[in-house]
């Protein structure tokens, strides 16, 4: 256990448990949040360590590694936890080769999920609960266990089932569409009590849901925006768990994500001609460079960018439907992303149909994404649902006006350009609803009109760039949550 003198140096200790962390392993926004929170919370006086699976090659990134926990048979093989530093963070890596040392991504290979994913992430949760219960061999024990998404959903449940009461737990829902479903015959294999396999426990339509297990056992539940917290209690967003979440409404809080303002900073971005809200001239230079890089011709209207997974959830089909009118009005579109083959093919077809006005890059390139935000006039985020979203925040930061659907964190971070908000000098983007073809088409028509008014456009761009999208205020909300749990 940690000594009293050491405890006095911090407000509390938090074990953050996740399947991804930026700088080490990333497939989406979850990794960005998990990687940003420790440093942001350190400024608030909290000591946070991140527990991750040791995927193939990850342990090589760990500096000053030392073994701090071990078990001879963790879901089918020996395992240990290595503590050290990586990507600027204090990291705990669950080294269990039989579960994590394999080819592919964190969850799948060759397009198919690993069949033992329930066991793999139950093991991660089990170890998190063990560390919360017993501490590590180097005398570190958390006051709070913070679990992220279904991959860590069983951690609060194991704590509760094992009778641990002096460590509090938080579960953050980053995307409720992924729920960690396992067949009921795996109850014993997942070290779960049969007595909790019922509708008030982790049973979900005859199966096990690790996310539901966390929802019914965590002391507090958070999600990544206030609007998404409200949406989750509705059938169209709750994905079958809306009743469970509504029953925990008094324990639910929506806390907005932020972006790393050191990485996403147009005044210091090595990928672009730098600029700022006070000195915006570099924006035009970046626009010209982006048009050339994508092979686009003269664009009299707004140059829109789309940096996204190419899926139905992200509203890519809405973009395709709105493109003809947008191009006819003088606009152009540059796309970077990958996803559903049919949508990739449709975007390729649009590139052929609208030469010099639509250009597509399938895949992902971090440097190119920075150049796109640096050079684009607007960024399209027409998601049908979006728990928080970081793309629109990158757009605000770079003065690349967000055109967003009125859902989740998009609705919470962008002030739509209405007559009232423009008159009040408050608008930072365009927000549309309903989320359908007509809604996006009308938003793009509004975009073209606003872009043509140079003075109003410049004022809105300046306001966007001055919007607070960093972690300082966001981390204060997490610190307040932790403080409330300990008090």
| Mean pLDDT over all positions | 96
Q: Name the assembly state.
A: single chain
- Beta-strand fraction estimate: 15-25%
Helical run tally: 19
How far from one another are the termini? Answer: 20 Å
Class of secondary structure makeup? alpha/beta
For the largest beta sheet, what order do the strands appear in spatially? 3-4-5-2-1-8-9-13-14
**Percent helix:** 25-40%
Radius of gyration: 23 Å
The dominant shape is globular
Main sheet attributes: strand count, strand direction, barrel closure: 9 strands, mixed
Tally of DSSP β-strands: 20
Weakly predicted, low-confidence segments: 1-8
How is this structure best described in words?
By secondary structure, the chain is α/β, with parallel strands linked by helices. Helix content is 37%, strand content 21%. The strands form four sheets. Strands 3-4-5-2-1-8-9-13-14 form a nine-stranded mixed sheet, sandwiched between helices. The protein has a six-stranded parallel sheet with strand order 17-16-15-18-19-20, sandwiched between helices. Helix 5 links the parallel strand 8 and strand 9 (168-173). Helix 5 (154-161) crosses helix 6. The radius of gyration is 23 Å and the shape is globular. The two termini are 20 Å apart. Mean pLDDT is 96; it is low at 1-8.
Question: Main traits of this protein?
Answer:
6-stranded parallel beta sheet, 487 residues, alpha/beta, 19 helices, 9-stranded mixed beta sheet
């Amino acid at each position: 256990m940690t000594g009293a003198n050491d405890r006095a140096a911090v407000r509390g200790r938090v074990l953050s448990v996740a399947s991804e962390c930026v700088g080490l392993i990333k497939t989406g926004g979850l990794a960005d949040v998990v990687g940003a929170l420790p440093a942001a919370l350190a400024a608030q006086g909290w000591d946070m360590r991140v527990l991750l699976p040791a995927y193939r090659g990850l342990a090589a990134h760990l500096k000053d590694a030392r073994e701090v926990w071990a078990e001879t048979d963790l879901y089918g093989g020996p395992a240990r936890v290595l503590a050290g530093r990586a990507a600027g963070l204090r990291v705990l890596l669950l080294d269990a080769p039989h579960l994590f040392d394999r080819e592919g991504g964190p969850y799948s290979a060759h397009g198919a999920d690993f069949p033992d994913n329930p066991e793999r992430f139950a093991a991660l949760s089990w170890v998190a609960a063990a560390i919360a219960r017993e501490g590590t061999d180097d005398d570190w024990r958390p006051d709070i266990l913070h679990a992220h998404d279904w991959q860590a959903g069983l951690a609060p449940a194991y704590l509760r089932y094992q009778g641990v009461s002096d460590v509090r737990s938080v579960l953050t829902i980053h995307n409720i569409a992924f729920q960690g479903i396992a067949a009921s015959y795996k109850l014993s294999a997942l070290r779960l009590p049969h007595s909790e396999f019922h509708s008030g426990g982790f049973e979900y339509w005859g199966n096990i849901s690790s996310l539901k297990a966390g929802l019914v056992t965590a002391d507090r539940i958070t999600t990544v925006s206030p609007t998404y917290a409200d949406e989750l209690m509705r059938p169209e967003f709750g994905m079958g768990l809306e009743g469970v979440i509504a029953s925990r409404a008094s324990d639910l809080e929506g806390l907005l994500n932020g972006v790393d303002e050191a990485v996403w900073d147009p005044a210091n971005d090595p990928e672009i001609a730098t600029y700022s809200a006070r000195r915006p001239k570099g924006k035009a230079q970046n626009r010209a460079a982006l048009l050339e890089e994508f092979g686009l011709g003269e664009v009299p209207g707004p140059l829109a960018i789309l940096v996204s997974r190419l899926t139905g959830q992200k509203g890519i089909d809405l973009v395709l439907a709105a493109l003809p009118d947008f191009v006819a009005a003088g606009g152009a579109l540059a796309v970077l992303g990958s996803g559903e083959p049919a949508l990739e093919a449709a975007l390729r077809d649009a590139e052929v149909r609208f030469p010099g006005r639509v250009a597509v890059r399938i895949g992902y390139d971090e440097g190119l994404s920075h150049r796109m935000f640096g050079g684009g006039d607007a960024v399209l985020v027409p998601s049908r649902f979006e728990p928080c979203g970081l793309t629109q925040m990158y757009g605000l930061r770079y003065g690349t006006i967000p055109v967003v659907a009125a859902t989740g964190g998009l609705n919470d971070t962008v002030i739509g350009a209405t007559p009232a908000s423009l008159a009040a000098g408050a608008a930072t983007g365009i927000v549309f609803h309903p989320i359908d073809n007509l809604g996006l088409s009308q938003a793009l028509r509004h975009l073209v009109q606003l872009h043509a008014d140079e003075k109003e456009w410049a004022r809105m761009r300046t306001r966007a760039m001055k919007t607070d999208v960093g972690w300082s205020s966001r981390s204060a909300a997490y610190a307040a949550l932790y403080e409330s749990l300990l008090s």
